[in-house]
Amino acid sequence: MQTADRIFAYKIRAIDKRSIANSMFRIRPLPLSGELLSSWLIRTAYLHHSDPATFLNLYFPEYDYHLWDNDLDLYENDSFFNRLSIKTGFKKETIYGMTLKPYEGWLSETIYPNNRNAFIMPIFRRKRNIRQHAQRICPICLKEDKQPYLRKKWRLFFSTACVKHKCFLIDKCPSCGEPFVIHKRLYDGDFPHCRKCGFSFKTAEPEFINENSYGLEAIGKIYDILEKGMFEYENNYYYSFFFFYILNRFTNLIKGGYRKNLPIEKGILENDDLPVSNTPGIPFVMELNIKQQYILFSALMQVFKNKKSIIRFCADNRLTVKKLTKSLTYIPFWFSEIRDIMNKPAIHITSEKPETL
Ligand SMILES: [Zn+2]
Ligand SMILES: [Zn+2]
After folding, report:
1. Nearest ligand, CA of residue 204?
2. Which ligand is nearest to the CA of 209?
3. Residue 102 to residue 252: CA distance in whole angstroms
4. Is residue 36 exposed (0-12), middle (13-18) or buried (19+ Cβ within 10 Å)?
């Protein structure tokens, strides 16, 4: 098999490049469940024994090696997707389905083709003063995969741990510390591996989390809301993007220092505390590492448990309605009820004895 593959790779080099540019991919693996387009393209390139950049350049020479400069999972380019559909024989919807665009209307009203999405990790460009984020993976998921591949969910900021395997996700090489760059490789085969030292990510030692940790339950709840596209709150149902809209607002309130009585899980962070932010204008999740994000979403989902817990958190932090709703372009209906309760002067939540969350 190995010999046959190598002969095949040799032959590809011998073919006139123009005929490749106009042909279909020779090998077209089926997309796997929840797979990212970038992952599928990289796997396909590997099956052709080709570097992902070289591979795409063979079939799309008009982009002159620049396709990977884009975040292909958020890429908006109709002609590229039309041609990819022809080259794969897959429907355009199948290909779009692998991008992050289908989260539109679920995760937020609009998914932007750049780095402006509240919960989608930018993994390609690096700005000064911002923590560099990279594609995350669960080493055990990869180990169990027949064909290791990258999941769409692993591009989301609240994906900090694998709910199935109860371990933290990783985004850099455990051997040399290099952030994971998905499309760059050191040698043929064994996807995914570290481009610098060749470490195979599926062999990484997982860091397990206590199964009673609320953070795991919190991720499960957020996934559930995202998958259903709806969320249940006080026996009513609302569109999921209204939930994420307010969740995002609260991440930034915590950045702003409103974190009194925030239920922070113990034993995961140093000093059991989230860092104080000092970069104005940068969303809080961008500044945090994986474990800090884990704690943040764990705490927020406890605050979001019910109406009473949100109101109590706001009261503890002296969050007035004005502060709470500042910079919100609209108030989702489920949240307007909370705002209205807070507006009533008769409520003295602060005087109540705090309940255990
Ligand atoms: Zn896993
Ligand atoms: Zn490495």
Report:
1. 2
2. 1
3. 25
4. buried
